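Risk register update: the risk of archive-format incompatibility is retired. Evidence:
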Amino acid sequence: MTIREIFPYLCVHDTAAAIAYYAAAFGATERFRLVEPSGRIGHAEIDLQGHVLMLCDAFPEYGIRSAADIGATAVTLHLHVDDADAAVARALAAGGTLERPVADAFHGERGGVVRCPFGHRWLIGHSIEDVEPAEMQRRYTAMFD
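Archived output:
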């Protein structure tokens, strides 16, 4: 088996609004959407500077529920950007909620966490230093001392 790509696929409570938010927050552009006669979006794709994110509305009849439906998300999407402070500020200005302020971290990244209006967590960060795994583990362990 050869894995050629992997695409995050988010179920949201309003795909059209999510597309608009991700455009404002992250500069996404819509590739296309498939809309049922009822107006429900069965599939949409957006482009985040060459990276595809797939979206759909909830389909509870098939067990497909949005983060808003379940009141949580088990997934964090990590955007690696050139300026985490500016990217977090943009996501907040577009309507996101700050979950963790931007700060330098032990693993060599500066980042923060934004919860989008559709209930998904976005860790937004940029590199500040290269840290070898052994050093990263040492720093991680030291946090618990």
